[in-house]
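The protein record reproduced below.
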Amino acid sequence: MSAALSPSASSLVAGLQRALAQRRRDGAARQPERRPLAAGPGWHADDGVRTLGPGDRPFEERHERACLAIVVAGSFGDRGARRTRR
């Protein structure tokens, strides 16, 4: 038995599917995009879709505050001011 997705989760899945289809069609990663999901005093949550692959140029993101990334497929590396993580 599979669980039904909420409308917001369905929207996230649909966005990822569109991005991956575009990647297959164009043969290249698209520009990263961010969509706001929620916010409150001192915090915000965004949906960020990335379709970069091992052969693509690295994409640099900079954040003024702490950032939590949830990767649902693939992997990523993180370079901070003092260290590199993979």
Strands lie at 33-40, 43-49, 78-79, 84-85. The helical segments are 7-26.
